[in-house]
């Protein structure tokens, strides 16, 4: 990567220098185009693909074509650099430039070579908790530093704490985050300093008497998104699964669905069934030798595991099915919206004693984060935060357009032309006398001369 | 991520800016002076994009976008002026444009 940067920047500087030194303006313009192309390439290396494309179209395309057009229209390819003071100015300018470079650029460059760049301290990662524990709605989770656990209203059965392993990470970012919203509510991510943490899970009956029963290491890399799913494993103990979420935009016209299986005693498949039914099973007969028509989207997801798939935009009848083809949950008329990123946790809900267990597919939504520097990201900032400047710049372009039209209108051309013609024709003698002087003979006889203005009275020629 | 930090880009942008400034000072051809100004604007844009990447903010890109728009407007008007000046006096040598000298 470094040699690529060095090569491109070398070409850019070389092209700029050539642009300065060429006598032919067309050559200068062509070298400037090379320079702009190099800068566009550097934009690509700087994660700015949108600007790179704008650079190519606007700068190397429109603006430079305008330059070349004007140069060739005027025939101004070569204008001699006159005046002796140009050399002097050039020398002085070069000296100032070199001094400025030494003052500003050299320290930066030497610093750069001296030490390896440290990782920025405030690298952020996103984290969210997903509550997939079966039970009543009163259950709540806290994310907090150990030792700062506060009693919460309602019945609290579990608290989850994050403990920073690295002492340099600020702990106050973790303290006091309380998730007390009911499940099935789309719950946002929380920004945390990237680093190594320990997830500490304690089961509590409201007084937080019991100590941690479970710890798990969690490494948050910068610019990552992580879901911590708390669920009950096969031994009825609280377990934690760490899902690294992919928040990049799904493919065009698709949504991304991530399924987490928190049903501990069975494998879960996600199938698409043609017609909405209230069936309890995919079997078409008692012995289950025939299944109703369906399409398997996720096949046999083990407990505590997760998988992602991309769904085409549209409407589906989805069903969660276990390995015995029993339908656990039906999502009728499920709308797959493009660009949506959805995480679903399938949880078994223990019903009242004696009744059959029910299942729910808790949903946790997330918005796709457009890639840095992509047209989408730039457009969102441009047209949300900077609407007024965009309008003003549009007005500026309009004014510039009108100004150019006024400057270049045929009327202005006619005036300048007329002025020049007038200047050329400002002669003192009448044209006739000039011709007669040149030919050495009278062009007009006295008879016609009499008809000229100022001659004898007219009417005599008839 | 990109292993190169922002510093090399800043140094490159400085060098390009100085080359552009030199062009403005040295060249007598009005069109070349204009092209040097474009070079300077471009080097400033490069610095903005480098800083935007460094801070992870897209706002820098937005500013670059505005600079490009303003540069386009400026070039259009400036070139129209140059064309008019050339019509008037058959020259775009900026040493010839001294009417406003005090």
Describe this structure as you would to a colleague.
Residues 136-158, 170-186, 204-210 and 457-462 of chain A have low confidence and may be disordered. The radius of gyration of chain A is 40 Å and the shape is elongated. Among the domains of chain A are: 2-80, Up-down Bundle (Four Helix Bundle (Hemerythrin (Met), subunit A)); 82-117; 124-261 and 309-314 and 334-367, no CATH class. In chain A, helix 1 packs antiparallel against helix 2 (25-45) and helix 2 (25-45) packs antiparallel against helix 3. Chain A has helices at residues 2-21, 25-45, 49-74, 85-114, 375-385, 387-407, 410-425, 431-439, 446-449; strands at residues 124-132, 141-144, 158-164, 177-179, 190-193, 195-203, 212-220, 225-232, 238-245, 254-261, 268-273, 294-301, 306-312, 314-322, 327-336, 340-349, 358-367. The relative contact order of chain A is 0.08. With 462 residues, chain A is an alpha+beta fold. Chain A has a five-stranded mixed sheet, with no helix packed on it. In chain A, strands 5-1-8-9 form a four-stranded mixed sheet, with no helix packed on it. Chain A has a four-stranded mixed sheet with strand order 13-10-16-17, with no helix packed on it. Chain B is an all-alpha fold and 102 residues long. Chain B has one domain (7-90): Helix Hairpins, CATH 1.10.287.3510. Chain B starts with 6 loop residues before the first helix and ends in a 13-residue tail after the last helix. The model of chain B has no long low-confidence stretch (mean pLDDT 86). Classes of the chains: A alpha+beta (462), B mainly alpha (102). Chains A and B meet through helix 1, helix 2, helix 3, helix 4 and helix 5 of A and helix 1, helix 2 and helix 3 of B.
């Amino acid at each position: 990567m470094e040699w690529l940067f060095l090569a491109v920047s070398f070409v850019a500087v070389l092209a700029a220098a050539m642009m300065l030194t060429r006598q032919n303006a067309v050559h200068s313009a062509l070298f400037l185009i090379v320079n702009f192309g190099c800068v566009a390439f550097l934009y690509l290396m700087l994660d700015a693909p949108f600007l790179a494309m704008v650079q190519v179209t606007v700068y190397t395309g429109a603006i430079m074509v305008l330059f070349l057009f004007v140069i060739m229209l005027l025939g101004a390819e070569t204008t001699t650099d006159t005046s002796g003071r140009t050399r002097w100015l050039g020398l002085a300018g070069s000296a100032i430039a070199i001094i400025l470079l030494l003052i500003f650029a050299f320290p930066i460059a030497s610093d750069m070579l001296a030490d390896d760049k440290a990782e920025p301290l405030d690298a952020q990662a996103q984290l969210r908790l997903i509550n997939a524990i079966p039970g009543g709605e009163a259950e709540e989770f806290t994310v907090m530093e150990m030792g700062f656990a506060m009693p919460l209203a309602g019945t609290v059965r579990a608290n989850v704490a994050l403990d920073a392993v690295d002492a340099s990470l600020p702990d106050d970012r973790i303290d006091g985050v309380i998730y007390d919203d009911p499940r099935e509510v789309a719950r946002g991510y929380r920004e945390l300093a990237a680093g190594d943490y320990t997830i500490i899970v304690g089961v509590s009956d409201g007084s937080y008497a019991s100590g941690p029963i479970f710890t798990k290491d969690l490494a948050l890399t910068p610019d990552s998104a992580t879901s911590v799913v708390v669920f009950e494993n096969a031994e009825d103990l609280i377990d934690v699964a760490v899902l690294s979420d992919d928040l990049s935009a799904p493919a065009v016209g698709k949504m991304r669905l991530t399924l987490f299986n928190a049903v501990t005693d069975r494998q879960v498949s996600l199938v698409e069934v043609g017609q909405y039914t209230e069936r309890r099973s995919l079997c078409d007969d008692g012995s289950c030798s025939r299944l109703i028509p369906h399409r398997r989207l996720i096949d046999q997801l083990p407990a505590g595991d997760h998988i992602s798939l991309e769904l085409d935009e549209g409407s589906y009848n989805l069903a969660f099915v276990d390995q015995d083809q029993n339908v656990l949950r039906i999502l009728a008329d499920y709308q797959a919206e493009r660009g949506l990123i959805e995480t679903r946790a399938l949880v078994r809900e223990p019903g009242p004693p004696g009744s059959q267990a029910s299942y729910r597919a808790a949903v946790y939504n997330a918005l796709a984060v457009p890639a840095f520097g992509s047209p989408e990201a730039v457009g969102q900032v441009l047209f949300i935060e900077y609407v007024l400047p965009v309008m003003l710049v549009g007005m500026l372009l309009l004014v510039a357009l009108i100004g150019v039209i006024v400057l270049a209108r045929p009327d202005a051309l006619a005036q300048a032309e007329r002025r020049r013609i007038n200047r050329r024709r400002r002669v003192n003698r009448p044209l006739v006398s000039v011709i007669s002087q040149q030919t050495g003979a009278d062009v007009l006889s006295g008879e016609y001369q009499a008809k000229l203005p100022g001659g004898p009275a007219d009417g005599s020629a008839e | 991520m990109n292993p190169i930090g922002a510093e090399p880009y800043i140094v490159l942008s400085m060098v390009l800016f100085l080359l552009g400034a030199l062009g403005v000072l040295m060249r007598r051809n009005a069109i070349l002076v204009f092209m040097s100004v474009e070079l300077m604007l471009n080097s400033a844009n490069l610095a903005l994009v480098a800083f935007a990447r460094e801070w992870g903010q897209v706002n820098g890109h937005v500013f670059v976008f505005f600079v490009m728009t303003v540069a386009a407007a400026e070039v259009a008007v400036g070139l129209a002026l140059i064309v008019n000046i050339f019509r008037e006096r058959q020259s775009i040598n900026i040493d010839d444009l001294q009417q406003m000298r005090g």
